[in-house]
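Risk mitigation, structural track. In case the binding assays with guanosine-5'-diphosphate fail to produce interpretable data, a predicted complex structure has been prepared as a fallback.
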Amino acid sequence: MNKKKMIVFMPAHNEEDNIGGVIARVPRNFHPQYEVEVLVIDDGSNDRTVHAARAAGADHIVSFPHNKGLGAAVREGLKQCCLLGGDIGIMIDADNEYPPEQIPDVLAPIIIGRADYTFGSRFKGHIQGMKLHRRLGNYTFTLLQAALLRRWIYDGQSGMRGFSRDAMENAVIIHDYNYAQVLTINLVRQGYRLEEIPISYQVRTKGQSFIKFRQYVSSVLPAIYREMRRPVSKKRKVTLQMHRDETSI
Ligand SMILES: Nc1nc2c(ncn2[C@@H]2O[C@H](COP(=O)(O)OP(=O)(O)O)[C@@H](O)[C@H]2O)c(=O)[nH]1
Ligand SMILES: [Mg+2]
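Fallback model:
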């Protein structure tokens, strides 16, 4: 039997101390119908991230010649997943904060066809070490997305997200700096079904977060505004619904 393909992709910038451990923990044989491959999007790292990823068994590495930003890296990850023939994709940060062991949990709703887009949700699960200002920032940006989408969301900034093939093909990330909020707004407004799965999260012990408060706010808010102003194709929503009706017969 020909197996389907699941691709685990990691955006990475200077994660030489972390990425090897994340790749080593990716479960490779958890589903009889899927083979699992690991893809790293190295965003112009100037340390030994690529070497560490290769040594840990990454199947594919795409390197940007210079640093473009996390949004650009996730966009490239989704594109490469499609080019590599992925039926399902999951992104996970390369900094050892998210649990690769829970990849099966986060993908389960997509595998059974109940969702198109999933988050590993820290605020539905267990969090270790998150500082108060980061927690408040997460609540604020999550609340903003929930208000704009008129639905409850628990963890709008999660760095662990699963995608159906269809969602990967049609996702749009409109800025290079980040993807977290604009991607969810984009997919949910297109009609893709979102589910959040509780995960355990542990703040990184090595390396540094790229987030600087002012730059984050001044980049992310205008991008959210622009994404909300983009028209959503009604045709796309209808096609999605027809496809679901057919597959549920
Ligand atoms: N592509 C890309 N990834 C980055 C950049 N900065 C950080 N990352 C990666 O994005 C993920 C999340 O970044 P991190 O700084 O930990 O953000 P935080 O978890 O929100 O504090 C990690 O896998 C980083 O390696 C960047 O400039 N470009
Ligand atoms: Mg992080």
